[in-house]
Design brief:
The chain has six helices and seven strands; from the N terminus they run E-H-E-H-E-E-H-E-H-E-H-E-H. It has helices at about 20-35, 45-55, 90-100, 110-125, 140-150, 170-180, and strands at about 5-10, 35-40, 60-65, 80-85, 100-105, 130-135, 165. Strands 4-3-2-1-5-6-7 form a seven-stranded parallel β-sheet, with helices on both faces. Helix 1 (about 20-35) runs parallel beside helix 2. It is globular, with a radius of gyration of 15 Å.
């Protein structure tokens, strides 16, 4: 199945490493250049805002999905192709997932981790087969170490590491998207 839309989970803050915002910009620009719809949390702050603005600047289609309670806190991004306001975070995640063919996760905090673990769990249970990509280089090493710990401690199902794929940069992500049917 061709990948035409990407769900982006990432921080509503920029983080302390200057490279994260640049990575979000490159990701958004890549979405626009490849004609991929960017489906994300609808905010204008942090990495999510950077990615959305870069996609819009490149002429891309950007769909934001934001809970009503976060419109002020995450400062809903203006100028989106489409903005969907939900009642809850659960509804936000469900719509983001439903409107996308693959998931890309950039650095973020506990909200990003919640989103990542949820789609990993759904995939582990066989509820979907959408690829999940971790984009952010060394940021993800402690997370991968945690997964290794869960595996060594006997709490992981076989195939844990097949649930997601770390990619080094936007170019490697683009190449992997090509192999997934684009």
């Amino acid at each position: 199945m061709p990948i035409t839309s990407l769900c982006l989970f990432c921080g509503s803050r920029p983080g302390t490493a200057s490279g994260h915002s640049a990575l979000a910009d490159r990701f958004g620009a890549m979405c626009a250049a490849r004609g991929l719809t960017l489906v994300y949390g609808g905010g204008g702050n942090g990495l999510m805002g950077s990615a959305a603005r870069a996609a819009l600047a490149g002429g891309g289609r950007v769909v934001g999905i934001i809970p009503e309670t976060l419109i002020a806190a995450e400062v809903a991004q203006v100028g989106l192709t489409e903005l969907i306001v939900t009642a809850t975070l659960h509804e936000r995640k469900a719509i983001m997932f439903a409107r996308s063919d693959a998931i890309v996760v950039l650095p973020g905090g506990i909200g990003t981790m919640d989103e990542l673990f949820e789609v990993m769990t759904w995939r582990n249970l066989g509820l979907h087969a959408k690829p999940i990509f971790l984009l952010g280089g060394t940021f993800w090493q402690p997370f991968m170490d945690l997964l290794g710990h869960l595996d060594r401690a006997g709490f992981a199902y076989p195939g844990l590491f097949a649930l997601l794929e770390p990619v080094v940069g936007v170019e490697q992500l683009a190449a992997r998207l090509d192999t997934h049917g684009r």
